[in-house]
Amino acid sequence: MSSIKWIKLNVDMFDDEKIKIIQSMPEGDSLLIVWIKLITLAGKTNDGGYIYINENMAYTEEMLSVIMNKPLNIIQLALGTFTRLGMIELDDKGIYLINFEKYQSLEKLEKIREQTRIRVAKHREKLKNSNVTLQVTQSNAIDKDIDKEEDIDIDSSSSIYDYYENEIGSLSPRQYEILNNYLDVFPEELIKEAINKTSDSNAKSFNYMNKILTDWKSKDYKTLGDVQNEIKPIKKSAKQIKQENEDEVIKRFLNEEE
Q1: Among the four residues 117, 131, 216, 257, which has the most C-beta atoms within 10 Å?
Q2: DSSP string, 221-244
Q3: What is the per-residue pLDDT across 115-174, written as a single tens digit (0 to 9) for each?
Q4: What is the CATH number of domain 106-228?
């Protein structure tokens, strides 16, 4: 696909708390340059925020070091920092810039909105078949039409998308799609529980919530009760571990004496 010719940088971008955190770091200026160069690379790739050489080859840290003219340790520090701050995601396809639509042209942004509107329409149709009507707020889609024929109505504040954005932050189109797919796997209350755990954590990012749900999926959790009944490992104190080690030594000694 052809690259877009320009990107947008808001005049207040340096007021963003994540940018301020990056600036406060010892290599802050270098990290900011890497960030801006990643945005331009995403524009050249023009795949909704992904950065790669082609669909079969992702950039390595060494490649980025060369094309950005930055030491390898700066690239590694930058990618690690951006990941922890929830600015990028790394997968087999390449580097993915979260909320890349902020830096795109209006035409591209409108395309993303249309894709989001279609996803929301499909999800509303699914709920309609279950005799439930879903209202979608402006933050999640352009389409705000509400089905008036159903007997049951769920307020927009109970939407899982609104719930996520109220507790954690805005969703990118890709994150919206992933969250939408989870609705086919888990009941809404279970996803809300994952959002609550994420909101209460230090991470407070989509990646953190995604890991929780991926773990629950691997354990075949279906209800909130499955999570609540999960057996958690008991954390032993240093004193308990020391005592157990001493008991084990004594036990081996006695066995040898016999």
Answers
A1: 216
A2: --SHHHHHTPPPPPPPPHHHHHHH
A3: 656 666 665 666 566 544 444 444 444 343 434 333 333 333 347 888 888 888 877 777
A4: 1.10.10.630
